Amino acid sequence: MPVLSTSPFLQPARWRCPQNSPGRQRRHTLPASEFRCLSPEDAISVFEIEREAFISVSGDCPLHLDEIRHFLTLCPELSLGWFEEGRLVAFIIGSLWDQDRLSQ
């Protein structure tokens, strides 16, 4: 015997929320965590992490923000950042092992 759709869970929803209700508003959320190549826009976050690490160990930071930004402009594919909720929390970037590429 065929089962008719009498359950509200099986029937298509016919009601709509008003456009201005809080539950209806679109929310733009960032992924909980993601890995991606760094971009020149990430240079400030990279610099802040590096500065904290260098200052805690040696009291001085030999890096400059412009150098990091320049590197990430030339070779973003030589970097990888780990982002949690849109915030850079860890990264690894290439070094002088690719000196030829960096000097072009």
Characterization of the model:
This protein has a three-stranded antiparallel β-sheet. The termini are far apart. The protein contains three helices and three strands; from the N terminus they run E-H-H-E-E-H. The longest helix is centred in the middle third of the chain and has 16 residues, at 43-58. Mean pLDDT is 75; it is low at 7-19. Strand 2 and strand 3 (87-93) form a beta hairpin. With 104 residues, the chain is α+β, with helices and mostly antiparallel strands. Helix 1 (43-58) packs across helix 2 (65-74). The protein is 29% helix and 16% strand. The chain is globular and about 35 Å long.
Dominant shape: globular
Low-pLDDT segments, ≥5 res = 7-19
Number of strands: 3
User: What Rg, in angstroms, do the CA atoms define?
Assistant: 24 Å
Question: Please, what is the average pLDDT?
Answer: 75
How many angstroms separate the termini?
76 Å
| Structural class computed from helices and strand pairing | alpha+beta
Q: How is the largest sheet built, in terms of strand order? A: 1-2-3
Helix content: 25-40%
- Compressed to H and E, one letter per element, the order equals EHHEEH
Biggest sheet details? 3 strands, antiparallel
Number of helices: 3
How much of the sequence lies in strands comes to: 15-25%
Which keywords apply here?
3 helices; 16% strand; globular; 29% helix; alpha+beta; Acyl_CoA_acyltransferase; 104 residues
